[in-house]
Amino acid sequence: MAQAGSRKRARRIRPRPTARSSGAAPKYVYSFAGGKAEGSSALRNLLGGKGCELAEMTKMGVPVPPGFTITTEAWAAYNAGGKKHPAGLWTQAMAHLARLEAAAGSRLGDPKRPLLVSVRSGARASMPGMMDTVLNLGLNDKSVDGLAARTRNERFAWDCYRRFITLFADVVLSIDRHALDALLEAAKTRAGARTDADLPAPALRELVAELKKVVQDKTGRPFPQDPHEQLRLAINAVFESWWAKKAVDYRRIHRLPDDWGTAVTVMAMVFGNLGPTSGTGVCFSRDPSSGERRFFGEFLVNAQGEDVVAGIRTPEPIEALKTRMPAVYRKLTAIKDRLEQHYRDMQDIEFTVQEGQLFILQTRSGKRTAAAAVRIAVEMFEKEKRIDRDTALLRVEPASLHQLLVKTVDPAARYTAIATGLPATPAAAVGKVVFDPERAVEMALREEAVILVRAETSPEDVAGMHSAQGVLTSRGGLTSHAAVVARGWGKCCVVGAGDVVVDEEHRLFRAGRAVVREGQVITLNGATGEVIVGAQPLVDPKLSDEFRKLLGWAQGRATTTVRANADTPADAIKAREFGAVGIGLVRTEHMFFGDQRIPIVREMIMAGDVQARKKAVDQLLPFQREDFIGIFRAMAPYPVTIRLLDPPLHEFLPKYKEVLEEYTRLDARGYNPERYAELGAIKARLEALLEANPMLGHRGCRLGITFPEIYEMQVRAIMEAACEVAAAGVTVEPEIMIPLTGTVAEMKLTREMTDRVAKQVLTETGRKVAYSVGTMIEVPRAALIADRIAEHAEFFSFGTNDLTQMTFGYSRDDIGKFLPFYLEKKLLPNDPFAVLDQDGVGELVRVGIERGRRTVPTLKVGICGEHGGEPSSVEFCHRVGMTYVSCSPYMVPVAWLAASQAEIKEPKHPESGEVKPKASRANTRKAVTVAARPATRKATRVARKRRNTR
Ligand code: ADP
Ligand code: MG
Ligand code: MG
């Protein structure tokens, strides 16, 4: 949703190049103060999300402290220019500082009436907590007294100063935060203070002296006392925080480009730490977990911003504000409604109350679980009529739907929880406990399911959190770092489980009397917040009404349809439940592995001659026919594409190494001669089948052509099954698919064989069943000669797993050896087996479709590789005019939503299947949806009939 919005904006606004071409410095700084602002929401790319919305809110009359924002263009110039301020930046910043000082009525560095500011990072897309912010800047040894005198609150002034030094030392001077926090903890112990807020002024003054000493020791210089110097250093540090490891990690995970950069917002401080009538909080205009329309949030009395987000003290729910500060609560409620109305989306709002006066410090589209995203989108369109249906569809990120298809703890499970925390996301997880985020990454690489357990998480932990199945923290609320980040991913997360005491040193945690050590398996029940020792059974999700509604709209809007890859009747039923309108790939070999079947399959492979092989093959036929009958019934009336046998035969035999071991053992001992002989034969057959490179070896149609009995049997099983269900009045539409075709001759030969057997069956049964014969396009050569292959194929299905493998020359099984390095060094943008490589592999797909349709304009084209459920790949498939995508049953809703969004962004041309150029899209959108779809459907149906009535 954020994507679509920012993209639109990107097109609308271009940074003004005029100033630069005339030689003057571009406008690097934009003010917001006293109801006026130079920026607005439209300048997101230039001012960052935080900066542009502060400007927008200022214009709306929302109470926002005055300030100014330095642009991402300034960042780009700084970054490209050897980390030096571009010409004009500082002069402009000083001019805007003067405006800020005028609005605030105090001056930076004034010892009597010091202006304090925050220096905040802000990228165009929200990266919560990944970059840095400095608060209370402008304090020094003199002005701290001025602040104390002016506010008549010594404790407060010294609290600000200790906070400032800590943040400045951490962010700007790169001094390890732990050492500084340890000093705070020690001061609390000395003073007998339970929380930070209980520390009295003298203790804080002492703490400041200690903090300054650390700075002196670590940097060899005293803590900088000149506020302008402080400001310059802080701005540079915020610029640099774009490159912090946590920020880089976050961008990699979220696939955000590195060259956006951050804006820097400098604004007057407001103080939530001025006593019991002050405080700070975070709120959401709706519940970010369920999407329910209710005010949701958390609040901490006598605290400053970061306290809530960092999860240091567990905050109170927003309702507490109603009794504590009723006027503030009313005002905040009105503002959150207004902001939601204005942005037409759920808002995540930071606010601070200074002695009873409310200030808004940030608003953004709130991160939410997929369930919440769906509910909010559906309700905003259907109930509240605030957005249109297309906007509702665009509001939900397709990949996030996967979360709704996540498993939860079986409601029938009986267990006793050892602790209960706050449920931040609804998903459940089972995994081994690990305390160190880096270890979590390592273990996940070895495919182990882990649960990361921390006292609290910080942005440094994101990579570990991402690798884990679930995250458990003992501190922090529902808006703590862990909760917000995990929610964005839909990852299982339980926070603030107060009973959990983490002992990182001994790699264990305690909860009541229970002790859980690293490596032990636990279950997190994301729905209830419970922590359970051992693995609990998880169950499939129930789809909500809103989900079904959204899915229905997506199906109505998409012009590229969605099928599923399903190998069994059970899969087919699941796929239909998730909205599949056909099967794009039945892998027949998966049926070979059943208990009763594998011995027959082995017999077939071991057969010494055609006769023996045929005997085995004939035994398999009834099994295959049964499976097909089940699948046809489950999918009726939709088409089912069945791929003939594809993998190399050795995959069906025992592993060579194991056979050899047993054989050698028996050889040495000399007993069980029968087994010995059998193993000898298997060993010999395996040796004969041994290939240096099986992926490029005797498989696919090469196998079907050299051992025709196998394909003949499969075609017969398919057609007999089709005739049988047709006889029962079920609509059936088999599509027989030849794998791994690379030459026209292969296609022609297998096509003739298929037609021959199919006709035989039709004659025998006396039925009329329409079927079609097509091919996988997965060998690059096939894509290039697609025009001639299409003379013999009635449909194409791009097998992008093999096509990727053969186009890159990367073995799917060995890519793990170098892929992590390639991704880290950005030699590849993504794993090409997960995200379709549009430039290379995609070009072959495009060429294949174009050439195929040159021969048969109505050629049905689909994709059946793993990419069929990946949103950006689905969008690509839509753009190149595919008829359908096919993916695993669980990804079907994801693919529908992605396909509908692709259609909204670029409508497909009804006849050619091509995507319309963008310019004409406004006028054609209606026409396309109303008139074209039935017409296309009908056209294909007619064409299909024509082709198959032989
Ligand atoms: P992040 O992007 O990590 O949320 P922010 O720039 O929003 O960083 O700031 C961190 C915290 O400091 C937030 O809670 C914010 O509300 C608070 N904060 C920022 N600027 C001010 C200010 N001028 N006055 C009071 N609190 C502030
Ligand atoms: Mg913030
Ligand atoms: Mg393949």
Task: Describe this protein with a few key phrases.
binds adenosine-5'-diphosphate, eight-stranded parallel β-barrel, alpha/beta, 950 residues, 15% strand, eight-stranded mixed beta sheet, binds magnesium ion, 32 strands, disordered C terminus, 36 helices
Structure in words:
This protein is α/β, with parallel strands linked by helices and 950 residues long. The chain is 46% helix and 15% strand. It has 36 helices and 32 strands. The strands form six sheets. The chain has an eight-stranded mixed sheet with strand order 13-23-22-15-16-17-18-14. A hairpin with a 4-residue loop joins strand 19 and strand 20. Helix 15 runs antiparallel to helix 16, helix 24 runs antiparallel to helix 25 and helix 34 packs across helix 35. The N terminus and C terminus are likely disordered. The protein binds adenosine-5'-diphosphate and magnesium ion (2 copies). The site of one magnesium ion (MG) has 6 residues, from helix 31.
Gist of the model:
The protein is of the alpha/beta class and 950 residues long. The strands form six sheets. The chain has an eight-stranded mixed β-sheet.
